[in-house]
């Protein structure tokens, strides 16, 4: 996937995940982009694990199902961040 598609997917998935997840998440556009890209990797890896039974680091594509999977992955990433950061504080 080219860099423009990564930027679009990251911004779209990160913004939707931040809107869905309860509470206030800090960060600007760059944090939203990074969250969406991380979500695409988490979601893509989980979908590959569920489909094939093998653990491979993969990312979703820029499509409707791909955005849905990336949003789910970004929500998991937000949850993990708060779970780990909450215990450290």
Strand content: under 5%
Radius of gyration: 13 Å
Low-confidence stretches: none
Spatial shape? globular
Tally of separate domains? 1
Output mean pLDDT: 86
Report the end-to-end length measured between terminal Cα atoms. Answer: 38 Å
Based on DSSP secondary structure assignment, what is the total number of beta strands? Answer: 0
What structural class results from the helix and strand content? Answer: mainly alpha
The major beta sheet can be summarized as:
none
What does it look like?
- The protein is mostly helical and 89 residues long.
- The chain starts with a helix and ends with a helix.
- The protein has helices spanning 3-20, 29-52, 64-88.
- It has one domain (3-88).
- Helix content is 75%, strand content 0%.
- It has 3 helices and no strands.
Keywords:
89 residues; 0% strand; globular
Compose a concise summary of this entry:
This protein is mainly alpha-helical.
Which secondary structure elements does this structure contain, and how are they paired or packed?
Blueprint (H helix, E strand, L loop, with lengths): L2 H18 L8 H24 L11 H25 L1
Helix pairs in contact: 1-2, 1-3, 2-3
């Amino acid at each position: 996937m080219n860099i423009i598609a990564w930027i679009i997917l990251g911004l779209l998935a990160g913004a939707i995940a931040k809107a869905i997840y309860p509470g206030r998440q800090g960060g600007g556009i760059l944090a939203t982009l990074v969250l969406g890209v991380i979500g695409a990797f988490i979601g893509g890896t989980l979908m590959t694990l569920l489909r094939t039974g093998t653990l491979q680091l993969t990312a979703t594509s820029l499509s409707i199902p791909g955005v849905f999977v990336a949003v789910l992955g970004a929500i998991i990433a937000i949850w993990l961040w708060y779970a780990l950061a909450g215990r450290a504080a």
